[in-house]
Structures are given as structure tokens and as C-alpha cells.
Amino acid sequence: MRAIQVIPSMTKTMLALGAAPLALLPLAAHADEAAADANTILVVGQHESAISIEPRGLSVSLGEEQFAGINAQNVEDLMKYAPDFFVRKRYAGDSNGVPGFRGTHSTQSARTLVMVDGFTVSNFLGNSFGFAPKWGIVGPGEVAQFDIVYGPYSARYAGNSMGGLVNITTRSPQKTEAFATVQGLAQHYDQFGTRDTYRGYSAEAGFGFRQEDGPWSLRVSGRHFRNDGHPQMFYGLAESESTMPATAVTGAVIDPRQGQAYAPGSPAKPIFAAQSPAAITQDQAKLRLGYDGASGVTGEFLLAYWHNLDSQTAPDCYLRDAAGNVVCEGLVSLGGKTYDASGARWSRSIRDELLAGLKLAAPLSDRVTVQANVSSYQILRSDGFTSGSYAAGEVNGPGTLARQGPTYWWTGDLSFNARLAGFELAAGSSANLYRTDATNYALDSWRRDGGKDFSSRTFGKTRVLAGWAELRVPLEAVTLTLGARYEDWRAFDGGLTRLGSDALAGQQVTGRYDSRHADGFQPKAAFEWAIDARTTLQLSLARATRFPTVGELFQGSLNGDGSFNEDSFDPGLKPERSSDANLVLAHDFGPVKLTGSAFWQRVEDTIFSFTGFNQNGVTTSSYKNIDVTRQYGFEAIAEARDVIVPGLDIDANAAFIDSITVRNDAAPAAEGVQFPRIPRWRINANLRYRVTGPVMVSVGMRYASRPNTDLLGEQRGDTYGYTSELFALDARINWNVTERLRVSAGVDNITNDRAWVYHPYPQRSFLIEAGWTL
């Protein structure tokens, strides 16, 4: 077995833990006493553009200054060095990139609210890696600003902001302009029996127009992206008691560290194949129309289309028979034992999606403004074709089709802001509707949907109606903000359809879920004290409620007569309810700003998929409520400009997180255990140095300590099937060849660290880029 790490684990940990304090030492030494405005606690990137979302608690705003030091293959990369934050991105073009704040598990997608220009792109149709925000709707070249707020401390936003919220602001043209960017990608990958170089490219372009003496602006952009991502799954041989003839083979790979990835104490299975590389093709087109009238009326219309093709038709099979032929399924003989090789299938998924949004704002007087927006995200097509076996994939034999539709969500908001006698009052209402409808079919030929036979169908809807209000009271050096949000949730029109059995054989039978209703009152409070011109202290408190998604609720199974299998789902699944606190202290030294943050969160009825006792006392693996979870932690953040030498900028941050299961009657062994996939430590840093006027170099670092992989804390490892330690060093160089032309080159994961989030993260990856602007 080859060594799978370049830097030993202890060495990586020491390097990472040492990096943050080393970065901070020169900052304090070179800070002057220049005063700075500290009216709001906002770290990293005080841009000309104001933060686009309410900065309660810890808030981060990222712009061109930070983007220049990042190798951005996709838009979510632009946040890779943000404090105590991550995106589960497994390869360039990954559509399952779930964001996580602080102690949020990397599959708790419904705890993050993500918006583009204020329009919701969070996929609250479910709560797992398969329901990530729709990052692909935006290209990295069109982003003006990323705003990140940690925690649910503003009444303006839904309880799904329990973890935090992100808003991506795209560029608004200031004049007639155009841009074009091309990229080339490459990653050499070596794991188990797979050795290959995966390549990709992208081309992004757009133009903008703004009237010189008029209110209208227009921006049109598009991007084509093509990449081969490394394999995400590896298949193990299963021991067989069959007495049928077996093919003698060689070539299987055994990783002795892998056994617990399947079951604690079990031996490692011989790995016989890797899933096919994901051949990703994405096309994106966007139109943004803006209106900025002299009377103060503003408006924006956004229309975005995203096409995604994921083709996996080349499983990498390691086994060879005596004649050297590839063997990828069937009974095989290895080391005197008989095994069954299966699972290496072929697949192809196609998605077409559309975002449409309209936003209007107008002054009702010199003190009162009103704003309204409505948006819809439509999944126009979502077809997943999968072969029934490896052999069926080769010869276009039988398979399955998973088809979604109609599937969509609608969101709408109406709000007003008023300045009255020194107070600031804001209030509003909002609504959303999420609908899912997914049908599975059996196919005669897995590549096409002709001759499909019905297998099963899942459908359902949720809606939330909300009202909120916030009062901001400035009292000289102290500002008090009080708020509250009320949400009314309903789940309805849910059901399952399958083929019946016995007397109903061949007929479709349907079971319908009972409608569900719940509500949540969510008070908020923030106390902000401008201690002096350079120092600000803020205490934020909140309650938040996150209601179940359609994917968590409507996920049971039916018996052959159409009745529900009572052990397949929890009909009484409760909403998550959190209590949150965040204390933030920031001091601005002039060229250096230091921020410290302490946070605490207690969640009742955490919704999580795990194995434990269900409502009937039966052990099942399904979505259940964990009675109580708790997290607390500390964050230290440094932002420095022109320190030590002119042109040297540093952003560095470190976070400690303690996140545990306090009480879990369904799985008592989990109590007191660190919550899965939550590292104790996260450290990120980015150093940018302008060598000369047109040339800038940057170095980045990302570190996360090794977490538990499972809820019980029994699985900890550094190979496939685990969530491992992460240590990555990145580098980039930008050269402004002319005022209009820029070229860049970069490498991520210089040390070729091999890290895992069950699936493998990228190994050493290269990027070259050229950008042109008019």
C-alpha cells in the first residue's frame, strides 16, 4: 500500500496551529494609533459598497481585494478563506457544495440561507448534500461582493439562517463595459488503483450598459464550464458463500485503515473499482436589468439559466483475470476467498434550471422607504439515468430513471424602513412555497426514457408565512436593536405512490401524508457599544426555528396495499429550535483590525438522519429529532493592510468549536460526543503581496482538525469513508499585463495533502487564467 500523505498528521497540525499566531505577531508590532470608524462590527473588506445584509453578530464582507488572491474555479471558491466557514466542494463543478458555519454539519444544508442579489437560491427541498445552494447560477467573474453573516440574529431573515446567511452581489454596470475570462484546469490524481490527470476549462464573458443621463442599466453574461472531476466513490468486494464458479483475479487494493468506514471493528474490504470520473458540462446565461430613477425609485430584474450535465460512463476497474482482461462485476476469487463484485454502474444526469426575480424600492417620504421582491426558482428538468449493472452500462441494457418535476420554489418579501425621531423602524412580511415531485422508472435501455415503466413517486409541498419587525435605537455611544419574527409553517399535499402487490399487483397505490402545521416566535436583540472611535463591542441574542423540509418529511415507504410502513418515517418530526448568543469585540489600529468572537448555540430537536430508535421503539436509519445539541466556540480574526512592507496584506483567522450531542433518547451512546464532521479547529489565512505595480503574489492556507465521522464518535480516520483532517497550501500570481489584460496562474493544495469528507477532496490542482476588460 502506497503512503497516502505527504505531510504527517502531527506535522500538519503543528504547522496550522502555528500559522495564525505567527501571522498576528507582525500585525500588532506595526499597528499605529490611527483612528477609524467602528460603527458596525464588520470584518474583512471595508468596501465602498455597503454590506448587503443586516450585519448582526459576526459579519464578513469580501470583495475584489480578497478575490484577487484566490484561485476561483467556481463561485463558491471566493469564500474559501472566510473565518470559521467552509463549503463541501469535492471537485471543480461539484453541484453538491453544502456551506457550513461554525458547528454546522456538512450535510445540514437547510441551516444556511443563500441569496443572489437578494433572491433565494437555497434549495430547501431537502436537508443533505443533495440539496446544496444553486452556486452554478453565478460565475466567479461576475461577482462584486460576498457578504456573510454568522447566526440568526436579524429578524429580517427566515429561521433557515440558524447557521448563517450568504448574499452574492453581482456587478452592476457603471458605464458601457465588457469582460471575458478563460481558464484552464488540471489535477493529477493518484489514489488506490486510479492514476490519471483530469483536465477542464471555462470561458466566461459579458457586457454591461448604463445610460449616461437615464435610469436604466443592463448586464448580460454567460459561462461555459467543462471539467472531469476525480472519482468520488470506491467499491469494495463483498464476501460470498456462493458455490458457483468464480473468476480468479488480481489487482484489488487493500487499505488497512479503511475497515471502520464500513463498520467499527470490521476488516477492510478489498477495493476493486473506482466510480467513473464525473464529466461535468455546465452552461449559464444571465440577464440583469436595473432602474435607478431620480425620484429614488429603484428596481432590478434578474433572469438566470443554468444547464448541468454530469456523465459518468468510465468506471475504473482494477481487477484483471488470468488473460489480463478487465473484470468489473460478478463472482471473483481472490486470496483463496470468493467475493461478489458489484456497484460500478454507469450514469448520466441532466438538469435545466431557471431563476427569475424582480425587486422594487421606493421612498414614500423623506423618512420612509418601501421595498418588495419576488422570485421563483424552477427546476425545468432533472433526469438521472443509471445502468442496472456495469455490463448493462456497456451495452445500453436495463436501468433506472429518477425524474423530478414539477419541482420549484417561490419566495416573496415586502418591507418598509422608517427613520422617526432618531429611531429606525423596519417591518415586513414574507412567504415561500416549496414543491417537490419525483418519479422513478425502470428502463429497458438506461440511456433513454422510451419504454419506461413506473416504479414509485414522491410528492409534497411546504409553505411558510412570516411577519417581522425591528427597532434600532441609537443612544449616543450605545445602539440597541430589538426584533421579532413570527413564522407559520404548513406541510401539505404529500404522498407516495408505488406498485401494489397481491390483489393490487400491477396497480399503482398511493398513500397520503397528513397535513402538518407548526409555528415559531423568534425574538432577537443586539446591544452595540462604540467604546471609542476604534473599538466596538456587540452582544447579539436570538431564537430561531427551522422547519422540516419536504425531503425530510415525505421520505417513508409504502406497503403493497398502499398503507404506510410505520417504521420508515417519523410522522411527528418536529422543527429545530435554537437559542443563540454571540459576543464580538473589534479594535481598529489603522492598518490592522483585530476581531474576537465568542458564540454559543443550543438546539432542541435537531433534525438529523442517523441510526437509532424511532417513535415506535424500532431501530431504523432515518430522519429523527435529536433532543438537544449544543455548540460554543471562539474566533480570532486579523485584517492587515500594508504591514511590514508596503503592499503586503494579510487576512488570518482561527476558530475553536466545541459541538456536542447533549441528549439523544433515540441513540443515548451519542450523548457527550463531538457532533460528526465538526472539527475542533479551523484556521484560514491569505497573504497577498504586490511585488511591483502590475504583479501580485498570494499564499493561502486552509486547515481543519480531524473530526468524528459518525454520531457515536466511533469512526475517526484518514482515508475513504471518513471525514479527515484537512491541510492545504495554495499560491497564486496575478500579472496586469496592460490596463485591460490580466493573466494569472495558481496551484491549490501544493503539498498534495489527501483529505476526505467521506469522498475525496481534490489533490494538487493547477489553474491558469486570462482576463480582459473594456
From TrEMBL:
UniProt GO BP: siderophore transmembrane transport
Claim: Oxidoreductase is one of the keywords in the record: no
Subcellular location: Cell outer membrane
PROSITE patterns, per database record: TONB_DEPENDENT_REC_3 (PS52016)
Keywords annotated in UniProt: Cell outer membrane, Ion transport, Membrane, Receptor, Signal, TonB box, Transmembrane, Transmembrane beta strand, Transport
Pfam families hit by this protein: Plug, TonB_dep_Rec_b-barrel
Domain (TonB-dependent receptor plug) ranges: 62-164
Membrane-spanning parts: none
Stretch forming the signal peptide: 1-31
Protein's UniProt name: TonB-dependent receptor
Organism: Novosphingobium pentaromativorans US6-1
Stretches assigned to coiled coil: none
Origin: domain of life: Bacteria
Membrane topology: Multi-pass membrane protein
Protein family membership: Belongs to the TonB-dependent receptor family.
GO MF annotation, one: siderophore uptake transmembrane transporter activity
TonB-dependent receptor-like beta-barrel domain: residues covered: 344-750
Main location: membrane
Entries under SUPFAM superfamilies matching the protein: Porins
One Gene Ontology CC term in the entry: cell outer membrane
